[in-house]
Amino acid sequence: MSSILASLRSLVSSIIGLITSIIQTIANVFTSLLSAVVSGIESVFGLFGTLGKDAFDLVSGLVGFLLGNIVIIGMLVAAFVGYTVYQQRQGKSVSGKKMA
Fold first, then answer.
1. Do the Cβ atoms of 94 and 87 come closer than 8 Å?
2. 10 Å Cβ neighbour count for 73?
3. 25 φ, ψ (degrees, to nearest 5)
4. Biggest alpha carbon distance in the chain?
5. Residue 92 forms beta bridges with which residues?
6. pLDDT means per 10 residues in the chain (100 residues)?
7. Summary count for the chain: helices (H), strands (E)
8. Whole-structure pTM over 0.90, yes or no?
9. What is d(CA 51, CA 45) in angstroms, rounded to the nearest whole number?
10. How far apart are CA 86 and CA 94, in angstroms?
């Protein structure tokens, strides 16, 4: 009789251990899913933060380039305007068509 009771205790203990393991597994799955969602949201915010920083760096570099080469850019614009005025005084169009 005592062996039957010991076997029943062992069976109940095993069933309780099984149920506890199933509950822990379900909790771990939900915890992992929540962690993945939070990580994804953090990645999106990090992406936008990096995108904003990189856009600012791009504009900063472009402005620095333009300011560093303003004399050369001004000379190219002046040459184009001078060429256009010269062509118009000669009676020619800049596009190659005859002017009326």
1. yes
2. 13
3. -65, -45
4. 124
5. 98
6. 87 95 97 97 94 95 91 94 90 65
7. 2, 0
8. no
9. 10
10. 9
